[in-house]
């Protein structure tokens, strides 16, 4: 076969979400040619699916610097820097205009799903001349046509939103889980909006103990107040919800403490039923409901529900990368050098030192996992962290080693997470979570090379899963 000159090929970016489009913007500034492949029909397709959720961080921290430099000459005006956008507002007010700029639009292919990535002309076992070879990216279009794209490098920013963890025990699907898919809503249903009829006057099971679960539970509690017959069961695998309830008044972020307090109050008042040490072993779908079988606190569990919210977290799609030589942590499935900083067994807060190309590199040079996918199964990703990742990667691909290694991250004291705390109805600021809040005048925390991992705000509770036991 004729070997294509690697340097003449584009850098393929997988995913046109915030981090993927930021990667394209940084590559363009470096004089490199990006090609962005997006499975959805438009940029930000995954974010649009949870468009009702409000971000923690105000606009000032949601826009990448290189993306801003592309947008402003095109007449784009930044929204109120202190306003908190929803996912929908972020797509419509930022990602869509960014994708429409001539520089990005001519290099964006929507409706194009990546099936596999490999070194061009070499399977995973072949080493001879491997570093001279580019990449072959196999794609399928909306019409079903399969096309291979050649690339000098690949930046995988495809995220994890499409691959939720299963409902079953031990990380495996429950028996019958695929057959019960019609009753599983996804992790962030619009309970008070578009999906209201699916939950009103019905019994819902929420599975999970992150802020996605808390968000949905509080919305369901609000719905139950307005619609009689709406019942809620919450199932967690740990022995205690203490970690999600938070440290109350001991929490250095009051809104985060308030979120946990509200959820705890709802449980204590009997407005929802909490099942601890829950193990879902079988799902039996029926005509209009599904039977959930398993155990809770070692006692038999048998529930009949109309919907199951699988707020169980996410995992990366690694099947498409089987022919790439990766260096992944066996626990978190993140790059090995990054994994100790984000392992959920130790961390329940989204404070991670800035990191760049060196931490994200793999044995196959020129391949990078960035954004949420770089965090593997860990749930603590910060949007601003992803922007710094791709800035560093673009610098490295352009041969600017000094810029690639000089990682620095300016964060609000709150971090950059997303959740809707259902507080707006009470006139309160939508702010909080393990990762932070959005005060009116947020302080900046500058993290440079070698910054400690513990920069952040105490929650008043034991961090990580070590706080999940009943008697901790």
From TrEMBL:
Transmembrane region(s): none
Database matches in Gene3D superfamilies: FAD/NAD(P)-binding domain (3.50.50.60)
Superkingdom, taxonomy of origin: Bacteria
Keywords: Oxidoreductase
Pfam families on file: Pyr_redox_3 (PF13738)
Protein's name in the database: FAD-dependent oxidoreductase
